[in-house]
Write a structure and sequence with these properties.
This protein is α/β, with parallel strands linked by helices and 226 residues long. The chain contains ten helices and nine strands.
Length: 226
């Protein structure tokens, strides 16, 4: 029933397992604040979705939500992507260009795969966290921004700190409120809910023509070693 589905739905996140109910409670507490959130979990556990839920449950919900995948952008481009640049900062910079932090002003910036952020940029990010300001590439003047930072990783930042691959001071500033997302294999009781949700979405994309699973297919999905 719809009432039963809604009991186990928190914005776009679905689950009735104790692990997911605990996460729903944590988000309810932290989302209305401006606290920095660190989301940890394996690939495919829903870190992107959780970051959007935190944003949409916050006072910044009607402001921008900007995602940056730190692992997908080459190191030599990441600084200008994050912080922008001024005209003449490098060959071909024929105009000022705002960065992703400028785009997120007033809202939330989601730094995915934060463990891949180069050491050279970690000090600059620390300054944004501490002073809410940064230097665009090539500029001698700082820019102020009002952003909430949510970061995510599947690498374990504390382990990267131990290996001196991540600044300890930055780790502590990012790790103000930590949420660890469980893997599907650790929340198997949520599988029927997740399968039903996916089937409803598939039906909606097919002009509400009902999409169903055979008993054999359902058995495979429920017993698969995720």
């Amino acid at each position: 029933t719809r009432a039963m589905r809604d009991r186990y739905t928190f914005h776009d996140m679905i689950g009735k397992s104790p692990e997911m109910r605990k996460i729903f409670e944590m988000v309810s507490v932290v989302a209305p604040t401006d606290a920095t959130v660190l989301i940890e979990g394996a690939t495919g556990t829903g870190k992107d979705l959780l970051a959007k839920v935190v944003h949409s449950s916050s006072r910044r919900a009607d402001r921008p939500f900007v995602k940056v995948n730190c692992a997908a952008i080459p190191d030599n481009l990441l600084e200008s992507e994050l912080f922008g640049y001024v005209k003449g900062a490098f060959s071909g910079a024929d105009r000022d260009k705002p960065g992703r932090f400028n785009e997120a002003d007033g809202g939330t910036i989601f730094l995915d795969e934060i463990g891949d952020l180069p050491i050279s940029l970690q000090a600059k990010l620390l300054r944004v966290l501490e002073d809410k300001e940064f230097y665009p590439l090539g500029s001698r003047h700082t820019q102020k921004v009002d952003v909430r930072i949510i970061s995510a990783t599947n690498r374990g930042l504390d382990q990267l700190v131990a290996k001196r691959q991540f600044r300890e001071d930055l780790f502590y500033r990012l790790n103000v409120f930590r949420i660890e997302l469980p893997e599907i294999k650790d929340r198997r009781e949520d599988l029927p809910l997740l399968i039903s949700h996916i089937l409803r979405r598939l039906s909606a994309t097919r002009d509400n023509r009902r999409v169903a699973l055979s008993e054999e297919a359902l058995e495979v999905l429920l017993n698969y070693d995720y």
